[in-house]
Each structure stands twice: as C-alpha cells, then as structure tokens.
Design a protein that fits this description.
The chain is of the alpha/beta class. The chain has six helices and five strands; from the N terminus they run βαβαβααβαβα. Strand 1, helix 1 and strand 2 form a beta-alpha-beta unit.
C-alpha cells in the first residue's frame, strides 16, 4: 500500500552524507510507489520553539510563530511515516532537526490533552563514529521519543565511519538506504 512519507532533513550540508543517504532513500521509496515530501531544514526559516503553549487555535496555522513551519505542518498532518534524518552532532540530532521537531508540538496543541498524531517513524543518520557506544545516546533518545509519542518504529539506517562531506559515496550504505525506502 502506498504511504505518504515526510522527510525532515536536518543536515546543513547540501551534498553531505545524510543528504546522499536521503537521496537514495527517496529513490527507493518513490520506486515502490510511495509519495515523499522532503524538507531540507537548513534552507528554511524556522525559529526555535518559544515554549509559550499558545498554539493550537488554528489547525491550518497551529503555531503562534509564522515562519516556514507553515509549509511543514500540512505534510506532517497527512504523513503516514515521518523520517528523521540528521548527521550525528555531539551524540544527538542536529539543531536544525531538533528545532523543527520541537515545533511540531503546535499540532499536538490542536488536540485534547495535547495528543500527538499517531505516526510511523524512521531514522537515517550519518556519523564519524561507528561503534555501539557511539550510536547508543541517539538510539536511546529516538526510542524514548517514539515511546512517549506512541509512534511505531519502522527502522533505522545508521551510516557510521563517514566524516567528510560526500564520503558515503560508493558505500553499501546507499544501497541499504535505497532498499529501506523501497521496503516501507
């Protein structure tokens, strides 16, 4: 069955390893008949959450801040699967991804009890390190996030050992990302 996939790309590099993994993922997903909407967050004007808890009054424009999140909200509402993509920065998501994800709370504010929409989720990440200890903080956060949101984990593509922009080129990790996209 065809799925609507929202990709939030937290990589600041246009041709970085995370972006290259996403290109392969999107190729696989679209070849399987899925619809993919990708947002390259570095190129967008998105401000951090104010923590004001004053959103949710207008479903079409749920946050009090009016910036490029207004492009993301409709795709988020319609998405079956949310793909979080980021290089690893200090054993966490990039600031670009974290900032956009925090702002999705405005959609929850539209619902009684701040209920988040139920989604499936996947993680695609590139990192310099490639040991279980290196991945542990990110995976712990990712799984805790999904647990609290009551989202379903669809899997991960973790590409470790890649630091320089474009280093993932020619790697089997690109095939893994492509196959993963096609498998959803």
């Amino acid at each position: 069955m065809s799925k609507k996939i929202l990709v939030l790309n937290g990589s600041p590099r246009a041709r970085g390893n995370t972006s290259m993994l996403l290109d392969a993922f999107v190729e696989g997903a679209t070849s399987a008949g899925h619809t993919v909407t990708r947002f390259d967050l570095q190129k967008m004007d998105i401000h951090p959450c104010l923590g004001c808890v004053k959103g949710g009054k207008d479903a079409a424009s749920p946050c009090v801040q009016k910036d490029d999140m207004l492009q993301i909200y409709p795709a988020y509402r319609e998405a079956d699967i949310v793909v979080l993509a980021s290089p690893m920065y200090y054993w966490a998501f990039s600031a670009q991804l974290k900032m956009a994800f925090d702002r999705l709370f405005a959609v929850a504010e539209c619902n009684p009890g701040y209920a988040n929409p139920k989604k499936e989720c996947a993680l695609i990440m590139a990192a310099e390190g490639n040991t279980p200890d290196n991945w542990k903080p990110v995976l712990d956060y990712y799984h805790a996030l999904l647990s609290f949101l009551e989202w379903t984990d669809r899997g991960t593509v973790l590409a470790g050992g890649f630091f320089d922009a474009g280093a993932v080129a020619g790697s089997p990790k690109l095939d893994e990302a492509r196959s993963f996209g096609a498998s959803l």
